[in-house]
Design brief:
The structure holds two protein chains of two kinds.
Chain A: H1 4-28, H2 44-51, H3 53-86, H4 92-104, H5 107-121, H6 127-151, H7 156-163, H8 168-196, H9 200-205, H10 213-222, H11 228-255
Chain B: E1 4-15, E2 18-29, E3 33-37, H1 44-52, E4 59-64, E5 67-68, E6 79-82, H2 94-104, H3 109-122, H4 138-150, E7 156-160, H5 168-185, E8 188-193, H6 196-202, E9 205-210, E10 213-218, H7 220-225, H8 230-235, E11 240-249, E12 253-258, E13 261-266, E14 277-282, E15 287-290, E16 298-307, E17 311-318, E18 323-329, E19 344-349, E20 355-358
Parallel strand pairs in B: 3-8, 3-9, 6-7, 7-8
Antiparallel strand pairs in B: 1-2, 1-4, 4-5, 9-10, 11-12, 11-14, 12-13, 14-20, 15-19, 16-17, 16-19, 17-18
The chains are: A mainly alpha, B alpha+beta.
Chain lengths: ~260, ~375
């Protein structure tokens, strides 16, 4: 008894986690209009998904936004982490603490304050406002990921590079960045995922000119769940699995 | 007359108000193997980092063959460093690590390949070119670090405790190998260590440092046999200190009272006067352990004996309260030579094997100064 009980518990936990996802995947291939009865295998919801122009556009918008937000925040975040790591300056602690404030504060607060800011400055709600908002909440995660890597960084590596004739810039390009690459990649992926599934902040700062996927799905659900959503969910699942495997592959390769 | 390669003059360096180097001057000769020896915190690593250009002196100048290097950044100094923890680039192969410095010089590909292979052959690692550093053992990583530093044919090689992370046996092998490399390459080596044995066995000259000041500069033999002060005497090797009092002064000799023995010793370089107290220094291997019935010598008894393979090291507690360390070689005639604890003996030495030092105002250079040695 003592042997099967923990196993059964483990199985139960995993079932609870994965059954809904499994159901979603299975029902994305369901021919029935209803979400609850099985009507045979079909790809009709995938077809209808790709015929839904608004949906496809929202998907591309979301991907493009996530891509650009992750990239911009990785660049700014990596430079911030380097500055915090390398230099001693006034207000360093405050700057460091402020990153955590952004990370810890409720998303709704960030959303409202960003909206107020954009209205005040006169930035049109759309791609630019979304990008700025997403970069803002992705940034601390990137900085912290990169700083964690830098804290374990052998300080004599840059010195060795300089000693062998590399200028500060060449050293950064040929030694520093390659060594912290896994952290940059991890930070980028984190930013990408955070941006892709953000709802709260996006709800506030998006405009009619640039509709993104989570908001599109949300509005669809309100008028009634269509099995198209299952197909979309399955595609996103496959996409994130591929991304995850890709990142793992890059990480293990860079270690070798 | 030896040619000076690197000249350090009046170097001063402070960190957060704490003086690490105090107006230190030192001339390093072309082609020599010079060792900076001292306990941790003595400034030896800082001195090396000033030479490499990783730190800048608060005052003083560094010149290489007459050319002022003081403000030159590390990438423009014709010298290279072997780091304590090797600092190999983890994302590059052994080949790329060694090639790094030549790539920075924008050498043609063919020349880079040739010189890298040559450098790796020198450290017997030509078969490991495609490996990544983490696939090598500590000793191999060390050799890659050396190859990477010498491939640029620097005028001067700086080595920052390069052997401290290796185990004892490997360290001995690398010591021999480093000496061989230095002879073959003809490059000046500046070696930093806190291991006095390493310093004595490898160097042409040893610089003993303490508190940012040079305590003594000389050949290993000079430093060991004729220490300039109590610190050097205590730091380099084991030493017995006998209190002596000058009884009378003659032409080339003085008569000194040591534990009631009247010994006529060579007159030291420092000024002496009658009645003055001084230290009589004797290395453990200079101590003679005699039969208790012997006429001369100071009586005591054995309180500890350590079999060391080639020597028998014993501690003798003198009747005067002092403990004496003696190190005797095994005699072929008497392989079973040994002491038992508590055995009464007499202790003496051969005249002329002692070294005399005056008493110092600051006599506190005791064991605590040696804890990290």
């Amino acid at each position: 008894m003592t042997r099967w009980l923990p196993r059964a518990y483990l199985v139960l936990v995993y079932l609870l986690l994965y059954i809904p996802i499994g159901v979603l995947v299975v029902f994305s291939f369901n021919d029935s209009r209803s979400g609850y009865t099985w009507g045979g295998l079909s790809l009709r919801w995938y077809q209808s998904l790709f015929n839904n122009n608004a949906m496809v556009e929202a998907m591309w918008n979301s991907l493009w936004l996530a891509l650009s937000a992750a990239t911009v925040s990785t660049v700014i975040g990596a430079l911030t982490a380097l500055a915090l790591h390398r230099y001693r300056f006034r207000g360093k602690k405050v700057l460091n603490g402020m990153l955590f404030v952004v990370m810890m504060s409720p998303e709704i607060v960030l959303a409202i304050s960003l909206l107020a800011l954009f209205l005040l400055v006169g930035i049109q709600l759309g791609y630019v406002s979304l990008l700025l908002a997403h970069v803002t909440f992705c940034l601390p995660f990137v900085v912290i990921t990169v700083m964690a890597r830098l804290s374990g960084f052998d300080e004599s590596l840059p010195e060795a590079a300089r000693d062998l004739g590399a200028s500060d810039f060449t050293m950064t390009r040929t030694v520093l960045i390659p060594v912290i690459m896994p952290a940059l990649l991890a930070g980028w992926l984190l930013g990408f995922t955070l941006s892709l599934d953000d709802v709260v902040v996006s709800t506030f700062v998006s405009g009619p000119s640039y509709e993104i996927l989570p908001l599109r799905i949300y509005s669809m659900v309100r008028v009634g769940l269509k099995p198209e959503v299952n197909a979309l969910g399955t595609l996103l699942l496959v996409f994130s699995l591929v991304m995850l495997m890709l990142s793992q592959w890059i990480l293990t390769r860079s270690k070798r | 007359m030896k040619k000076t390669l690197l000249s350090l003059s009046n170097l001063t360096k402070q960190f957060d108000g704490k003086t690490v180097l105090d107006s230190l001057s030192l001339d390093i000769y072309d082609g020599e193997f010079i060792t900076l020896l001292g306990p941790s915190g003595c400034g030896k690593t800082t001195l090396l980092r000033l030479m490499a250009g990783f730190e800048h002196p608060d005052a003083g100048t560094i010149t290489l063959s007459g050319e002022d290097l003081t403000g030159t950044p590390p990438e423009h100094r014709p010298l290279n460093t072997v780091f304590q923890h090797y600092a190999l680039f983890p994302h590059m192969s052994v080949f790329d690590n060694v090639a790094y410095g030549l790539k920075m010089e924008k050498r043609p590909k063919e020349e880079i390949r040739e010189r890298v292979e040559e450098a790796l052959a020198m450290v017997q690692l030509q078969d490991y070119m495609r490996r990544k550093p983490h696939q090598l053992s500590g000793g191999q990583q060390q050799r890659v670090a050396i190859a990477r530093a010498v491939v640029k044919r620097p005028r001067l090689l700086l080595l920052d405790e390069p052997l401290s992370a290796l185990d004892y046996k490997l360290r001995r092998t690398m010591q021999v190998e480093l000496k061989r490399l230095q002879r073959e390459l003809g490059i000046t080596f500046v070696f930093v260590t806190h291991d006095q044995e390493e310093a004595l066995s490898m160097s042409d000259r040893v610089v003993v440092l303490k508190d940012g000041l040079v305590q003594q500069l000389g050949t290993p033999r000079e430093v060991y046999e004729r220490p300039a002060n109590l610190f050097t005497a205590r730091f380099v090797g084991e030493t017995n200190f006998f209190p002596g009092e000058v009884e009378s002064i003659h032409d080339g000799t003085i008569t000194v009272d040591v534990f009631g023995l009247k010994r006529t010793l060579r007159r030291p370089d420092f000024p002496v006067r009658e009645g003055q107290s001084l230290h009589v220094l004797l290395r453990p291997e200079d101590i003679r352990v005699l039969d208790p019935a012997d006429e001369q010598g100071v009586a005591g008894k054995i309180v500890e004996r350590n079999y060391k393979g080639s020597t028998l090291d014993s501690v003798i507690h003198l009747e005067y309260g002092t403990e004496v360390l003696a190190s005797e070689f095994f005699d072929e005639d008497d392989p079973a030579f040994d002491y038992r604890l508590g055995e009464p003996v007499k202790v003496s030495w051969v005249d002329g094997w002692e070294w005399l030092l005056p008493e110092e105002a600051d006599e506190s250079v005791n064991e605590d100064a040696l804890t990290d040695a």
